[in-house]
Amino acid sequence: MFNWCRSPEAEEPRSAPTCSRLSEKQAFRDESNAQETHLPAYSSCRFGQDETTATITDKIDSLSKELRVLSLDMHDHPEIAWEEKRTHDILVKFMKQHGFKVTPHAYGIETAWEATYQHKEGGRTIGFNSEEDALPKVGHACGHNLIAIGGIAAALGCAEALKKHDLPGKVVLLGTPAEERGGGKIKLIEKGAYKQMDLCLMIHPTPLSGLIPMLAVSEVVVEFFGHGAHAAMAPHEGINALDAAVTTYNAISVMRQQLLPSDRAHAVIYIPENAPVNIIPDYCKMKCAVRSFEYKRLVDLQKRLENCIQAGTISSGCKVKMEWDYTYKDLRNNSALGQEYIDYMKTLGVEVPITTEALGSTDFGNVSYELPALHPMFAIPTGGEGNGNHTPGFTEAARTKAAHEEAIKSAKGMAVAAFRSFIDEGYYKTVREVYEQDKKDRSK
């Protein structure tokens, strides 16, 4: 779910993405540096000499052609949120064919699924996500076909390494519906799907590579109910629902001027189709959203947005119905997992900057509040400006061979970063301590 929110002054990378995001760049940088000095150290991993890494990457390379076919199949048959029935079926079939224990329609959600692989008893459990849904009209314009095969590749690579090197542990891959609309991962959290995991990772294509913050977002559906009347003969008898919506929109615009640079507010008005101009509208619908760098600030913005809606209601005399649709929390990338990913990607010649610039929002942010998590962005060629996520140009880019190759690279990095938690106790301890420290920081 991307609405691009880049800030030209926020190009300087920082060293750890786990700190609280602040409105002023210097305060952000100072806090990041202060936290970094308290992170426990762990030994570096020599990727070129690491047998498990070689096993993982060789397995993923061997799957690349199959995964390309699967990705194109998904891309050519896009399905919107909660309707990913065909996608569900082909991904479930693929994981069954590759030896995972698969639960279709998992956790009582029709288009969710869970694939697991356990080798020996004990060990940690690492999780990955494969998103499924597309967008109306523009299809896979957010590249969820690439996200899906990335999760599959990482899960199969890690399972192969557990088996070949006879290590105890469990790999869980969740098929997650409705990221674009409705928060499939939030429902999976509520059902307990992530409680079994010690950490969880997924990748995402964009025109940029990096460990990049994602904003918390909440959306509300607003309906205004007025009273119709003849606009010329008896306007005094009418209660104008469109006026309520316009006043609300203007109030949001006024509020927007005094928001922090990191905050966002959006609104659209839906006028009944073919509404006659000579009748005062008795009904009007809006969708409004607010975004912020941190969930705790988002709560305040929700209240301010409700005040704007009340302004439209009171001034027009309309009745109102408000229904908050969903809330995606901000993304908390775990810096220990992130550094491992960065270090491996360098061996492939891929630079992964850590930036303060924000992109959009994702329900994986809610996952990152529950357990150590990582959500790297990988760059795919899009053909220039104007072809970012959620555009027809990005839809085309997401089915190219070049995009597939970048997804395979990123899947390797994700798998390697995750797998180290199976074999390096100090590393996992650091991952966990980073998460616990961030949990304390966001509660202040």
Walk me through this protein's architecture.
With 444 residues, this protein is α/β, with parallel strands linked by helices. It folds into 2 domains: 25-213 and 330-443, 3-Layer(aba) Sandwich (Aminopeptidase); 216-328, Alpha-Beta Plaits (2-Layer Sandwich), CATH 3.30.70.360. Strands 1-2-4-3-5-11 form a 6-stranded mixed beta sheet, with helices on both faces. It has a 4-stranded antiparallel beta sheet with strand order 8-9-7-10. It has helices spanning 25-36, 51-76, 85-97, 144-164, 184-190, 241-257, 295-316, 335-347, 364-370, 392-397, 401-423, 425-443, and strands at 101-104, 113-119, 125-131, 169-176, 199-201, 204-206, 216-225, 264-270, 283-292, 319-328, 373-374, 377-379.
Q: What is this entry, summarized?
A:
The chain is α/β, with parallel strands linked by helices. It has helices spanning 25-36, 51-76, 85-97, 144-164, 184-190, 241-257, 295-316, 335-347, 364-370, 392-397, 401-423, 425-443; strands at 101-104, 113-119, 125-131, 169-176, 199-201, 204-206, 216-225, 264-270, 283-292, 319-328, 373-374, 377-379.
